[in-house]
Amino acid sequence: MHGVAFRQADNSAKHCPFSITPTTLSRKMYRHLRQVTPLLAKLIHRVSEDHDFLQTRLSKMAKAEPFFGRLLALHQQAHGALGQRQALARKPLLLLRTDYMDDRKLGAKVIEFNGIAAGMAPFGQRATELHHYIKRQWPSVYQQWAENPHASPADNQGLIHMAAGIAQAANRIQSHFDPNAEQAPTFLMVVQENEDNVYDQHLLEDALQQLGIRTVRRTFEQLSKELYSGEQQRLLLAGVGTIDVVYLRAGYQYQDYYSPHREEQVCCQALSQTRLFIEQHYVAVNATFSQQLATSKTMQMLLTKLPVTDFARWGLTVTEANLVKSVLADMQPVSAATIDWFNRVADHSQWVLKNQGEGGGHCVFGDAISHTLSQLKEQEYDAWALMQRLQPRTRTTPAIAVRDNQASEVSHLVSEIGLFTVFFEGQPMTELDGYAGYLIRSKPAAENEGGIHSGQGILDSLVLVD
């Protein structure tokens, strides 16, 4: 009824799995995350605009990982080579979701940065609203299944803040060209063909429309034929007109740039050039090539290993750098020496092996890590990283999960906490220093994959305890 669903192959809708009562987090930890997450967003923005740093520090990973090799080549094509930098017209709009787990001993640590297609703020807000509704409508059921019936709900206006931030960026771009424009600013969402996550996207589009923003949807294939340039590097779309914001919900995998109708010597070159064409115009863009590179697993590892004094490069004080470091878990590059250490010394249960992939299904756990490492060729090492495995606090009481219209009791749930931030040209777009709400996904502790799409995750919300 409220649009919290996935589209099915037959064009029917299926509700997202959800819990009927929220998970708890200490108020102290919540405040810490609220403080550090906007700081991380500021850091990611500044790293993403440090083109020399991206090119030099990610070159080895790009040689090992073909998709990121293509991204880095497009980045160089856009910004020029080292010492020959050129300014692009595009204006960076950073819609970032930083995902954490609250480790039982170490506290909350970053799992990953999601800088492209960072969706589900609408679903996060709807989950919070659902739990408020259950508490009001069925108080005895809520009391029975709540982990702590007296905990305070953490406010979550993710959909509202995300839409408001995007709308501000759209209005600023339009005002640059015509301060007295009478037509609505236009928001372009780049989507995958046959997208199943259309409901989360439509909730955002509807919120933008209520703020006076016109919304359109296109695939890269469609855009390759419909985009063109106007005066003063204005981006135009055939049949629509001027474009003020481009939001990529596609573009994080080769498949998004592949067209079966094209014969290409270099895979996916034509449609990736469409993305480059967008960045060559005066338009707000999320995600830019730079933002996608800056939120890669390899960059996360590099930032984890930097000494605090090095963060001054991006304008962070030592105090701010220590705050950032407080939420970064240990990561190790893959090398012959690391593999030898891992096989001889390391506790395999305490590590996760990750590649550069976005979404679920890209992690290797436990004893399977040694097998995967043994299969890697040396030239593939830099595409992977070892990350300290987090052991999150489990929910102390059983919970009720609803999946496929069936309720079941689930014990030992653990939760992944995603905090959203909205920055435009490095400036926060909300009154909360850029913070824009959260997404909670819970899963049984024994399950490795906790995604709502690709795993045993369920939508959840957050309440706070002292």
TrEMBL record:
- GO MF annotations for this entry? ATP binding; glutathione binding; glutathione synthase activity; metal ion binding
**Gene3D superfamilies per record:** 3.30.1490.50, 3.30.1490.80, ATP-grasp fold, B domain, Glutathione synthase, substrate-binding domain superfamily, eukaryotic, Glutathione Synthetase, Chain A, domain 3
Cellular component GO terms, alphabetical: cytosol
Q: Kindly state which keywords UniProt assigns to this record, in alphabetical order.
A: ATP-binding, Glutathione biosynthesis, Ligase, Magnesium, Metal-binding, Nucleotide-binding
Report the residue ranges that make up the Glutathione synthase substrate-binding domain in this protein.
Answer: 186-294
Recorded hits in InterPro entries, A to Z, give: Glutathione_synthase, Glutathione_synthase_a-hlx, Glutathione_synthase_C_euk, Glutathione_synthase_N_euk, GSH-S_sub-bd_sf, GSH_synth_subst-bd, PreATP-grasp_dom_sf
**Which cofactor does the UniProt annotation name?**
Mg(2+)
Class of enzymatic activity (EC top level) = ligase
Q: Which SUPFAM superfamilies does the annotation name?
A: Glutathione synthetase ATP-binding domain-like, PreATP-grasp domain
**EC number assigned by the record:** 6.3.2.3
* Metabolic or biological pathway, per its Swiss-Prot or TrEMBL entry: Sulfur metabolism; glutathione biosynthesis; glutathione from L-cysteine and L-glutamate: step 2/2
Q: Which family does it belong to?
A: Belongs to the eukaryotic GSH synthase family.
Q: What name does UniProt use for this protein?
A: glutathione synthase
Which species is this record about?
Motilimonas pumila
